[in-house]
Amino acid sequence: MKKNSIKMYDKYSVLRIETTINDPHEFKIYRKVNRKNEPVMAWVPMGKSVANIYRYAQVSKASNVRYLDA
Asked: What is the pTM of this model?
C-alpha cells in the first residue's frame, strides 16, 4: 500500500477533498542538479523539504481537481 492518499468527506455541509503526501519521492520536481560536475536542470524525486512546498501545493491541487472531475 502506498503512503499517499486522497479522501473526500462532508464537514458541516461542506464537501472537502484532502490529499495526504507522506512519501513525496513518488513525485518529481524540476530543479538544478549536478551531473558530471556540471549544473543541469532535471526532473528528480521530490524530498520532504519545506523548500518544495510550492510543488507539494501543485501536486495536491492537481490531484484534488482530477478526483473531483472523475
From this structure: 0.76
